[in-house]
UniProtKB/TrEMBL annotation:
GO molecular function: carbon-nitrogen ligase activity, with glutamine as amido-N-donor
InterPro entries xref list: Asn/Gln_tRNA_amidoTrase-B-like, GatB_Yqey_C_2, YqeY/Aim41, YqeY/Aim41_N
Organism expressing this protein natively: Pediococcus argentinicus
Descriptive protein name: GatB YqeY domain-containing protein
């Protein structure tokens, strides 16, 4: 079952269980998917679906940070719960060891030797790991390896 079918099934389950939180999150993701489909003008590929889900996850993480800064514990708890729902639809993430290996291989591949080559490394690296690893972690690993 692909992600879109899973979302529809989970929406039905949440409706029957009267699970408002899950239902709201799933509806928002479904709406984002529909908007993206209209925007691109064709049925979404699995990669495009993953991009939409990753965007929803990133938005909630950013909101969570802002709520923590503002001492809004009520919204922090709600957003953390939403993140757990979104996580079900996220693409499989690479382990830290896998990311380190890909980073070191890419650095060798592009012949990077200093921090000046950072952009070249990231340009070659991001298509390989897009959606499979946290960009912030990858950024940090590249900087560490180029030091």
């Amino acid at each position: 079952m692909n992600v879109q079918d899973q979302i529809v099934a989970d929406m039905k389950t949440a409706m029957k269980a009267h699970d408002k939180l899950t239902l709201n999150v799933v509806r928002m993701i479904k709406a984002d998917l529909m908007n993206e489909k209209v925007k691109v003008g064709h049925d979404l590929t699995d990669e495009e679906v993953n991009t939409v889900v990753l965007r929803a996850n990133k938005q909630r993480k950013e909101s969570l940070e802002e709520f923590k800064k503002g001492n809004r514990d009520d919204l922090v708890q709600e957003t953390e719960a939403e993140l757990k729902v979104v996580a079900k639809y996220m693409p499989q993430q690479l382990s830290d060891d896998e990311v380190k290996q890909i980073v070191s291989d890419t650095i060798k591949e592009v012949g990077a030797t200093s921090k000046a080559d950072f952009g070249k490394v990231m340009g070659a690296l991001m298509p390989k790991i897009k959606g499979k690893a946290d960009g912030g972690k990858v950024n940090q690993l590249v900087k560490e390896n180029l030091s």
